Structure formats: C-alpha cells, structure tokens
Amino acid sequence: MSNTILEERKDQIIRTGSGKSAIDMACNRQSLAGAVSQRACVFCGSRVVLYPIADALHLVHGPIGCAVYTWDIRGALSSGPEIHRLSFSTDLQETDVIFGGEKKLEAALDELIDRHHPKAAFVYSTCIVGIIGDDLEAVCRKMTEKKGIPVLPVMSEGFKGSKREGYLAACKAMFQLVGTEDVSDVPEVSVNILGDFNIAGEIWIIREYFERMGVKVVANITGDGRVRDVRRSHGAGLNLVQCSGATLDLAKMMEEKYGTPYIRVSYLGVEDMAESLYAVADHFKDIDPGIVERTSKLVKEELDKLLPELARMRKDLEGKKVAMYVGGSFKAFSLLKAFRYLGMKVVVVGSQTGTKEDYAELEKISDPGTILVDDANPLELSEFIKEKDVDVFVGGVKERPIAYKMGVGFCDHNHERKEALEGFVGMLNFAREIHSSAMSPVWQFVPRRANRNKESLKEAGNA
Amino acid sequence: MLKPNFVSTTNACKLCTPLGASLAFRGIEGAIPFLHGSQGCATYMRRYIISHYREPVDIASSALSEKNAIYGGAPNLKKGILNVMKKYEPELIGVATTCLTETIGDDVKRILFEFHNEFGDLDLPEIVHVSTPSYNGTHTDGWHGAVKSLAEQLYDEDSPENSSINILPNMVSCEDIRHLKEIMRNFGVKATILPDISETFDGPSYEDYVKIPTGGTPVESIKNMSGSRGTIEFGRCLQKESAGTFLAGKGVPNHRIGIPMGLRESDIFFDTLEAVTGKDLPEIYEQERGRLIDAYVDGHKYVFGKRAIVYGEEDLVTGLCSFLAEIGVDVVLAGSGSRNRGLGEAVKAVTDGMGRTTPEVREGVDFHDIAEEAESLKPDLLIGHSKGYRYAKAWNIPLIRVGFPIHDRFGGQRIQTIGYKGTLALYDRIVNAVLEKKQSDSKIGYGYM
Fold first, then answer.
1. A449 at the B interface (CB within 8 A)?
2. Closest residue of A to B10, CA-based?
3. Minimal CA–CA distance to A420: which of A231, A199, A213, A123?
4. Residue A340: which of A362, A320, A363 has the closest Cα?
5. Least confident of A9-13, A314-318, B190-194
6. CA-CA distance, B19 to A233, in Å (whole number)?
7. B248: exposed, middle or buried (C-beta count within 10 Å: 0-12, 13-18, 19+)?
8. Chain A residues within an 8 Å CB radius of B44
9. What is the pLDDT of residue B146?
C-alpha cells in the first residue's frame, strides 16, 4: 500500500476481492492522533441528532466554540417554530472553569426558557464540563421542576468516544420524553420516522408518500420535530429507522419498553425508496388489506415521472467513476445502488462511523477492487481519488475542497445540502446534481485533466 | 430595566481562541496547525474555515480520549506530531491548546521539551506552541497569540541586520495580503508579512493534492525579523504584549497603527511606510489616493446620514468606524464579541472630530444584544460578517459582508478592505448597496440613480 497511509490505519482500509474480508475491518475506534480525521466528536453526534427538534431549546454548556460551530449548521427545516436555528451557549469563561459553571447554567436556563417558552430544553455537556464536573443532571432536575418543562441533560462530552457515542447520548435524552403523553387517538396504522432530519424539506416528501398509502405519521424524529410528538411516539404501530444508527438506539429502547417494532429503511435511490414503502405496506397489510395496492400505485406513478428523465441523464453518465465518503455507512448502501441506476461505477466507499457489519454488507454489494475505508483523512481520500481516477466525489463540506483541488466533480450529500435528495423526486434532484457537476466543461481546464488531455493529444500525434 | 448579572449568549459575535491560532499558523510556509484536544475541535474548525475560504484545510488533532483526559494528553500529542511528520513532512507544526488540555493541565511546553529530547535524532520540524484556552478571549486573541508565539519561539538573536521590514497585518483577507505585497514591491522594499495567508488560503488549482499549500511566511524570514529595520503592526486593540513589542524589546522599532481602512488610516500607513523605509510614496498610490477622494465626492450624497451597525473583530470594527465617519455614515452601534480590548477608546480615537456622532460601542455583545438595541436605532445598513444575515433579512436592510466568516456568499477571501484601493472597493459596495435598496424600494424604479 502507498506511503500515504499510516501503519496504524492499514487495517481500516480494504480492497474488495483482495482476499482480506471486510468483516476483519478495524472500525468504531478512536481516531488516530495526527491523522487529520474527517470525524467530529461525541458532542457533534448528539447535537446533529437533536438539533432539528424545532420547539425545544438547545443550550450548549461550554465555551463559545462548540455552540458557534453548530449554529444553524444543518439545513433541517421546520414547518413551525424555529428555536432550533438559534445558537445558545453558557459561554464559559475562565472563572467558571475555576469555580464551576452550574450557577451560570441555571441562570441561562432561567433566562432562555422565559424568553423563548420552549416545550423542552436539551442541555449539552461539552469536554470542559466533563472535566470540571458540573452536575448537569442535578441542574436539569431542578430546572425541570422550576420551569414545568422537561429539561434534559445530554451527556455528550466530546472526548468520550466518537460521534457514535453522541447518537446514543441523544437517544437516551429523547427516550426520557417518550411515553409521557396520551396516545389514545393514535391509529394502529401509524409510524414514527426516525433518523431523518428534514434536510431541504425531505421529510415532507416522505410524509406525503405515507399519507397516500394511508399511514399516519406520529412523530418525526427528529426532522421538523416537535417535543409533543416525541412524547407520544410510543403510540405508533411501527418505527422506521433511517440513517446509520443515529436513532437506532432509540428504536431499540422503544421496542424493549413499549414493544414498538422497528424496521430499517432508506429513502435514497429508486430501489431503496420503493422497497422501504413496500416494507411498511407489508407490515400493515393484515390490518389494512388495501395498503399494498395503494403502495404499488404510488410507486408506479412516481416511477413513470422519474424514469424517462433518468434515462436521458444516464446516457451522459454511463461508465463514470464515483468515490463517496459519508457519515453513516447505511447511506452508502443506497447511494451505491442509486449510482448503478445512473450507469456509474462506485470505486471508493468510506464512512466515519461504519460498523463491521456495515462494511461486510458494503463488500457484498460492491464491485471487486472497490476501496472500503473507515475514518479516512484528506491524504488518503485524495490518494484514492487519484488512483481510481474518479469523476465525481460524494461527501460533505470538508470533502468538497479535496475533490475540487483535484479537479473532480462533487455532490454534497451531507446534512448541509440544500437540495432534497430523498424520495423519487429526490433521486431526480440527485441525478441532476451529479449530472451538472460531472458534465461541466470546467474540468477541462483543471491541471490534472488538462495535462492529461495534452499528453493524449501528443501521443495521438506521434502515432 | 436592571439586567440580571448573567446573560447567556445567543448567536455569538465571536469565535473561539484556537480557531484564530489555526488561521494564523496556516499562514506560515510549510506549516500545519495542530490542535491539542479532542478530535471534534479540529474537525469543526476545519469545516468552519473551509466554508469561508473554500480550500482544503488540514488541521491535525491529538484526538484525546477519555483515558487521556484523565491521565494527560502527552502521549497523544507526541504520537500525533510524529504521525503528522510522517505524512505531511511539515517545516513547522503550530500546536494550539484547547479548553480540554488547558483544564487537565497539560504543560505543552514541557511535553514538547520532552519530545525534543526523545526524538532529537529525527529531522524535527520547528514546533511552535501557543496557549489558547477557548474560555479565555476570542479568536482574535488566538490569532495574535499565535503570531506572538511565532516571533518569540523562532527568534534568532544572531540574525544579521537587514534592510527589510516586518508587517503584522492582523486578520485581513487574502486579497488584502496580496495588496500589501504589491505595495511592498512598488516601494521596492523587502518585507516579511506575518502571517501571509494570501496563497495558503486562496491557492490555484493543482495537478495533485498538495499536502501543505505553497506560500506562507518562510520560517527563515521569521527568524530574520529580529534584524529588520522596523515593524509595522496593524491594530489599535492589540494586547500590550505582542509580536511587535517583543521584537521592539530586541531592538526592532515597532509602529503600531490601525488597520489601514479609510483615507486617514491608510495615510498613516503610507506615511509610516515612508518613514520606516526612507523611500517616497510611489506615484501609483498618489493616484489611488486621489481616485478614492474623487469617489468619496461622487458618492457622498448617497451615503450621508445613513445609519449603520458595525460588528466583528475589534480592529476591523475600528477600521470600519474610521472609514464610515469619513464618508458621513453614522455608526449607531459598533459591537464586538470580545471584551477588554479597548474598542471604545480605539473607536473614539479614529472618529473624534470627523463623524457627526461618536459611535456607541458595545464590547462582549452577541447578536441578541445587537438586535435588542437595533429596535430603537433604526439602522439603514448592517456591516460585518455573514452571521448578521438573519437580522438584515428581518429588518429588510442591506448587509455589507466583510470580515470572517463569509459563508453565504462566494469569494469571502477576496474581499478588499485595506489601503486606498481596498477602501475604494468597499466604498463602491456600500454605495451600490444603498442604491440597490433605494431602487428596489422605489415604485418608479429609476434607471439613472
């Protein structure tokens, strides 16, 4: 392997079909010091999961950076209140670090709850709070009583693991809300949407499908989320879990305590979107026999609109090569299939938080020679882009300049995207975005391509 | 109304200390910034910086875990540096601490001393460290702290006397630094600009992924700063101790002036430059100066009496206030997230006797505070970084984007503000924003304004 890869990272990278199986992939470990990981921290994990609950107050207990860097960072839209788009912090100062920040936290909650009248408050713990030992739970208990709304501690000290631990902390905080509201009016044929964050209004697309199928959505967890919905989410007949594990823990907790079954779904790409809807129909078909037919009608209608346009774009995109680096690996499965639909070849797949099982699954559905990588960094990613001569890269804001510097098209498929990429209509948006980047004439001018074109012209001339 | 003795922060008008240090370190040739803390800090700051500069920003981290938080981060810091050396082959590693490592009491200076003892046989890069607890000060303190550390820790007392000058440009844009370099060329003077982010944060397209972008202040030049004939440092709100005063202590005369924004602050800069270099102002700047005054006259009626709220880094705010006073714009509120940096005195110094009013100055503000005051201030213009956008939208007034971060527009790194030329660019934007607003508010929609 090339010298770009640090010795200690070698078992976090495999090539499919090389004899080394992905089930032996090292993953879910602390990022390596000095490796310039693309990963964030525990706090980030819980912040991104809880952030879209729009009528809750999200107070970051820590110094200013943690709050600022997550201020309105996601494109999670709300159909109503927008408290979530503000950035609240206790803005800890040196004296707080010495004398403790509990008083300040109490005062902040007092002030902010009175000002914004949220339905609940989430209080995020940061690195520094873990070190100085503020008793977040005690303050939250006290403020819950005083203010008459749930004030929930989120134990998300940044250094306590990776982003994944943050997901768990978020689920634990939300689980305290579940089961605290009346559910007598919730119908049997109903679901909660878990692990979708309503980026660019995506959850509204999905809810509309369910409405057409005759399925009631009880709670969006957490895109366009509301505290009251979470409180009565245990009344739903089924939990639908998307995203690689961000809310899987919550579904498991609900299954154990309330017996709510869950299935894993994905709204990305043609196949996975359709399969997810059929899975929901299948689940409810005994109670609602008409649901399967309504679902196939829906899928057919949507595909009729979608497929001719996709076919046109496929002509241009056929054979182009793709690399992707995503947060959760579950998304990668769907994207891989979606790219096949466009005639494109996925040659590199990486994720920040994949598990052994995820990578094994990826291995199964990838072409031989695909590079699978866990917790990558700019040097590795750029090396893979070069080696595989990639045309399009899929990632988030941090990966964009890496692709662009190498003269490679890019699609933002992270939580900052502004285009809805879910659902059938989302597949169309996705294809358009890939098409518009891959087919832009600008790539002719970037040195990596321009120099090669010059060489091939020279060769042709000599021949 | 009596305010409670604690006010929480809503929509902060500042960033944290290590971010500023990372920005400054990135302006050194062959350097890589390194945050000693948990992984999230480096990643979040990278993301934040990328959205402004649209360049790859590799910041290493010691990626501390819970165990390190209890037993100390030394092993990770050492290992992290070795890993960065292996893969990036940097000439300099700029280590900045975070709230975590400051609080667990990691003595970075000592750890680095040990590191040098343990690995002295390797070809070690320069390692410069700065203490940047994020609960102390803002990103500007991180920036200036890093610049000071670079000067102090790379100081070479044997550096020969030379005819070059040192410029400590403060947090200005890549375009501004390029302008500064052009000025130096036209003056025919060799200058060390510390830091020089002009290429490292706004580089060209390359054939390959460049591990560390080219450009930046050469380490050798920083060492030679001690032999220069003088230092010009931009900033009226600087700490008493700075890179400039450190070098002054070693015999290099220091000239502390405001960021050259507006006519008078630019005049001071060019006068200082003439004095330090002993050379006359090149013709081209006489022309630029004349063109600026001509524009001031051409556009004066459009902007006179307009009410502006200005916010951001303390020295940027000071520069803006100085400039706006010159063109007859009333700054009704000048705010900064930083505290105790003398913003009030600085603004007074640059506006006294010029503007019709002395701007109201607020230190330690967040956007909630600004919004509360704005109700009664009825501003026509908002001038500052992108974070004011939601307020400008709510109040239906133009936002003139300047400073850091600009992440809702393209080309934040190329916004010009300094010198006669930068002032003129900014002036054009302000006048046009006023005209655009007037035009779009008008029922008639005049074609000539």
1. no
2. A88
3. A199
4. A320
5. A9-13
6. 40
7. middle
8. 40-41, 44, 65-66, 69-70
9. 98
* pLDDT, position B1: 42
CB pairs under 8 A between A and B: 237
pLDDT of residue A453 exceeding 80, the answer is no
Smallest CA–CA distance, residue A292 to chain B, in Å, is 44
Judged against a pLDDT cut of 50, whether residue B301 lies above it is answered with yes
The larger pLDDT score, comparing residue B6 to residue A299, is at A299
CA-only gyration radius of chain A, Å? 23
Residue B227: what are its φ and ψ, rounded to 5°? -100, 5
Return the exposure string of B109-142: e unless at least 16 CB atoms fall within 10 Å of the residue's CB, then b.
Answer: eebbeebeeeeeeeeebbbbbbbbbbbbbbbbbb
Span B14-40, pLDDT tens digits: 999 999 999 999 999 999 999 999 999
Structural contact between residues B449 and B437, judged by C-beta atoms closer than 8 angstroms: no
CA distance B199 to B174: 7
Q: How far apart are CA A403 and CA A442, in angstroms?
A: 13
Is B41 touching A (CB cutoff 8 A)? yes
Q: Check whether the bond before B133 is cis (ω within 30° of 0).
A: no
ipTM of the complex: 0.95
Tell me the chain B residues in contact with residue A70 when contact means C-beta distances shorter than 8 Å: 44
- CB of A45 less than 8 A from some CB of B: no
Residue type, B192: T
Within 50-109 of B, beta carbons closer than 8 Å to A belong to 50-51, 54-66, 68-69, 76-77, 79-84, 86-88, 98-100, 103-104
Distance of residue B360 Cα from the nearest chain A Cα, in angstroms: 24
Backbone φ and ψ for A446, nearest 5 degrees, come out as -70, 140
Higher per-residue pLDDT: A462 or B117? B117
Q: What is the DSSP string of A217-268?
A: EEEEEETTB-HHHHHTGGGSSEEEE-SSSTTHHHHHHHHHHH---EEE---S
pLDDT of residue A373: 95
Q: pLDDT per residue over B355-385, tens digit each?
A: 788 899 999 999 999 999 998 999 999 999 9
C-alpha A388/C-alpha A411 separation (Å) is 18
The reply to whether A127 touches chain B by the CB within 8 Å rule is yes
> Considering only residues 339 to 398 of chain B, which have any Cβ-Cβ distance to chain A shorter than 8 Å?
387, 390
> Which residues of chain A are within 8 Å of residue B54 when distances are taken between CB atoms?
400-401, 404
Residues B365, B360: Cα–Cα separation, whole Å: 12
Beta-carbon neighbour count of residue B447 at 10 Å?
Answer: 6
Neighbours of B182 (CB within 10 A): 13
C-alpha to C-alpha distance for A127 and A160, rounded to whole angstroms: 8
Please give, rounded to a whole number of angstroms, the shortest distance from the CA of A190 to a CA of chain B: 37
pLDDT tens for residues A327-357? Answer: 888 889 999 999 999 999 999 999 988 889 8
End-to-end CA distance of chain B: 45
Q: Please give the structure tokens belonging to residue B337.
A: 């997230």
Q: Does A132 score more than 50 pLDDT?
A: yes
